[in-house]
Amino acid sequence: MADASSQAPAATNNPAAETVPVQETAQNEQPTENGAEQPEVVLPHDPKTPLELPVSPLEQIHEIRQSIIEHPVALQYSCFHLEHNGQRVNDFVQVSDVEGLGAGSELHVVEDPYTEKEARIHFIRIRELIGAAGDRTDTAQGILAGVSIFDDVAAAAAEEAEKDLEPYDFDAPADLSVLLPKELPPAPKTVKQITLSPWNPPPAQWRQKGHLLYLSVTTNEGDQYQITGHVGGFFVNMSSNSKFNPLPRTDAKAASAHSLFTLLGKISPSFNSAFSEFQQYANKREPLATFQIGNTVPAAPWLVPPASSSHVAHVSDQTRSQETYLLGGAENTDSLRDWNEEFQSAKELPKETIQDRVFRERLLAKLHADYNDAAARGAVLVARGEVAPLNPTEGRDAQIFVYNNVFFSFGADGVGTFTSEGGDEAARVATGKDVLGVKLVNQLDIDGLYTPGTVVVDYLGKRIVGQSIVPGIFKQPEPGENQIHYGAVDGKDVVAADESFAPAFGKLAQQLRIKKHAVWDKENKRYDLETSVEMKGLLGTDGRKYVLDLYRITPLDIAWMEESGPNGAEYPHRMTVLRPELVEALGKQKAREFVAAELQKRAAQKKEANGTAENQEKTEEHKAEEKAEEAKADDAEKKAEEEQKEDKKADNIDRIDMSGFKFALNPDVFSGQTPQTEEEKEQLAKDEQEVRDACKYLRDVVIPALLRDLSESDISFPMDGRSLTSLLHRRGINVRYLGKLASQCDGNARLDCFREVCVREMIARSFKHIACKYLKTLPFPLTSSCFSHLYNCLLGTGLNAKPVAEIDESYRALYSDADLAFEKVTPESLREEIQIETTKRFRFVLPESWWTQIKHLQLLREISLKLGVQLQAKKFAFTVADAEAEPAAPVQTPAEATLASASSSSSKKNKKKKSRDGSPVSVPAKVLPPQTFSPDDFVNVVPIIKDSAPRSALAEEALEAGRLSIYQQQRKLGEDLLLESLSLHEQIYGLVHPEVAQMYQTLSQMYLQLDQGEAAVELAKKAVIVSERTFGLDSAETVLNYLNLSLFLHHRGESKLALGFAKHALKIWKVIYGPDHPDTITTLNNYAVMLQSLKAYHESRRWFEESLRVCEKVFGRQSINSATLLFQLAQALALDQDPKPAVERMRESYNIFRNALGPEDKNTKEAEHWLEQLTTNAVAVLKNEARRQARPGLRLASRIGRSTPATAATAPTTTPSVPPPPPDLDKRTIDELVRYIEGGDKKKKSGNSGGSSTGSSGGKKRAGRGNPKRRGGASA
């Protein structure tokens, strides 16, 4: 096996990388490089050329089997088994368990007879493999889900790198085309058509003879073949379109093969060459960009290409409608799974060894992904009314459904459970909290405690909960028995406390920091529960203990509930619980305080002991003298014992006993509990005070700390709602505090960006709630009209101040009982509703005329992502000026395309038109004034999914162990552990997963620190692709990964290529946030340094000036950040042969440093030194110009050294020379000064710090210090 480090970057390009060998990751045991075997795999069609596959002894045989299936040489095989020494090998045994299997031994691929299921799978696989499968209409994942545009960006960057640098337009508006994939040429066709035959399925008498499928193939030569799928393989039969005869042909066209792929090569002379061309076409793209996403929900873009694009073209494919049969079989039994049994059986798998844990976690990850997909598809059908309820006589919100063995219910208070908590609003929140609680319990992985598979889906205004069916959940309890065995049974009137649940619930409570506490039922009987009374324990009929209703694992935020909103606005519900992250952070803070108190106590004890010892020393001094001789004799003997005692004493001092520390909160305080005795009341009051302290910690410590970190630029500013929410949740702050956060930003210019993102998020969330209210009961075909009207009322009033809802009259007639309240919405009423929602939910009053201050494009993106809307790309005209500047290009909608094709039909068809007068396309639409959005712009809605899948603990342990080893200077061990963690991430999650994207990013940065630039760049590319496909093309993670890739390429010396990726990141940034985001200061600065390394001094100067402009806007002109950028700009101006402004900028920088940091600070002194040098040389340049002007015939040379922007752009790398200055001035020429500024002067002081040198000749070291805060921040 090759060295693991050399395979790190490339390993993940191969789909078979999911079976990378796994070695032990214990820190004291370094992964072995020699543990792999390399047996030879002998293929039936080519036994003389065996495959060599690197195999770990810990791998299972089915993993080798999968590697063979995906190997380019063995593509045609899917139905086979492996034999060793003539003996069949079980697919589920480890390689090490196969006797004699090792290096040099042979594994034979032996073709198996097909079953109907195997034949169907083989047919599907071959269609995908040869590119014959058409587009799929996916109900759950949306249009172009999981798309990546990295190849387009890389091609554009490479093309731009070959050209001369062009000036960048900083004022250009955001361009939505940056989010759309480029058009591709059509793929080469391998066959004209391959589909199931009309004669399929085989009749009974032929099924008895081994017939499984009948296929129809039309080759590129135009010949049509009818093919029989048989238990022994595939053969051409004698059927035609009108005659059925499934027996093998006996003429010249007869052919047969075990694999359909091989048969196609036999019947079509051009197939093999066409397939080779197709492979070359497919291989032009990055493998990760096309790799199938199996273990996560792919990101669905909110903006998709117009209907005319080849990316969304709907092509004819007869097999598309047959895929349900191909995937599930005739009875559709293949797709029916007992989800609950699968989840719990996987949880019960052994986890003693590393390999056990890998297998278990990989199976659980795959199970959660399959379940999430099935639940999302079922939820969409439930929301559309296509699944019959189990209780049709109940009200709509109380109805329950079962589809695909998933139990569905609405996230609404259909049965009055949450009446006292806020009704439907409380029920909606509770379902979201429940799925978060299930995720936490799954992550803790407590033995003996089980959770149902849980997913929450938001779709078209409805919240739907999908749960796996717990055995016994529908069982009616016997009289006198409770269905629930632990926790509240009927509301809170009846409480159960089965002691058999206490141990498992106690472990859960300890992990979640829940205090054991008393609760009382309606008869005031006391029960001591380990967890919240709302959290229920159920003993399933399978004997397992299930935990349900995990929506209250933390206490109520009583400080929020006791506080009144603006104008007396009441919060919509009482489900305002604290976040688990806050409780955990407070627990750690309390632990630190406990440790500090213990250390202080020990220090006091030690001081007291020392004082007593001094007194004793004086009184016993004469005794010591008498015993001096005796002590000398015993010294040698006691020395070793004393050392041991000292060591033990030191250990005891260093090790603090934490058994006395306890921190836990009672989640049931402030929820109507009624203690009976004074002692109980006193304990409850104490518990209440602890919860109040937690609320105080959130308000007085956590929130101010976040604002302080943002103000001081210690953390990155969020770009959009998603990154903002993620930041708040990591800190333990609920989203309801957005109003408080925005209010506390007032008056601090540095936090204007954060305040803007907060306000935008509040508006977007308020709009989402309003839209859901109108969408909830609306028939599906009318939703596009609702979306377009609400969008126009919010964002389109600049073009049309009085938008009108576009409703197809035929739909109005069809759905006569539909509630079309949305058409009565006006811009004014919508603004009022948004203000009410924002005041009620966030306790924030939007500024007057707030709708005139919004950024239309950014808000459009936010609300579309929150509602799952997919919009058709066009130039959105938000104002009259937009419409006049660039009118929207006419886009042919699907309905128009249908009409266009219908117009060419014959007169015979037109005679039937009267009978179709009720169809939507036949009703003429009213002519309306121009509006920003039309119903045709809204092409799809995707479900928003919240799942309960846990992260892999094993992969994270290996990552932390690797980080720790590198920190402890154990570099080789650290690198091996990092590689092991990467391998584990890929094996457990698959190659395309958000966690893998994060791993690629983390590992790429570590490799850069370890001076492995090639590996860093490769991993950074993968991070970009996977983040595009899982987070989204325009996510904050994608922007960050593009910027990292740009920096890594620059470090590798490919600065021109790096610029292309950085530009793309900035274009996405404009779409997400708009211009002037605080974090772009560093990006602009780094870009300028890259340009300096390319000697494009004038363009570099422009980027420094832009960086300074943004910095001044955010931090102010007199800030240390601005001083740092002024310092760099002055150097850039000097390089651009503009000495006078260079001196002015350096003087300004020096003055700011002197005023802020004092004259003795190193930054001040450095700026002073540079000011002297630049002043001296500026004087020299001016004198030389004056001398030249004084000479006759040399007036044309008077502007030497001063290039105009035009000349600088065309020749950025030329640096004119200047004659030396007079003897009394600085002796260096401008060329020497340029070398000095670039870091090439050997006499330069080594003590210069904090970004003082503006980019060395390679620019490598400077780019890493692009953050202007670091100079001032370090000394401040």
From TrEMBL:
Gene3D superfamilies: Tetratricopeptide repeat domain
Pfam families according to UniProt: CLU, CLU_N, eIF3_p135, TPR_10, TPR_12
Biased composition (Gly residues): 1248-1258
GO molecular function terms attached to this record: mRNA binding; translation initiation factor activity
Leader sequence segment: none
Location in the cell: Cytoplasm
Compositionally biased residues, Low complexity: 1-17, 1204-1216
Comp. bias (Basic and acidic residues): 1224-1241
Keywords, alphabetical: Cytoplasm, Initiation factor, Protein biosynthesis, RNA-binding
Domain Clu: 317-561
Feature: compositional bias, Basic residues: 1259-1276
Principal cellular location given in the protein's record: cytoplasm
Compositional bias segments (type: Polar residues): 22-35
Region (Disordered): 1-48, 604-653, 667-686, 887-929, 1186-1276
UniProt GO BP: intracellular distribution of mitochondria; mitochondrion organization
Description of how the protein assembles with itself and partners: May associate with the eukaryotic translation initiation factor 3 (eIF-3) complex.
Similarity section: Belongs to the CLU family.
Protein name: Clustered mitochondria protein homolog
Organism: Chaetomium thermophilum (strain DSM 1495 / CBS 144.50 / IMI 039719)
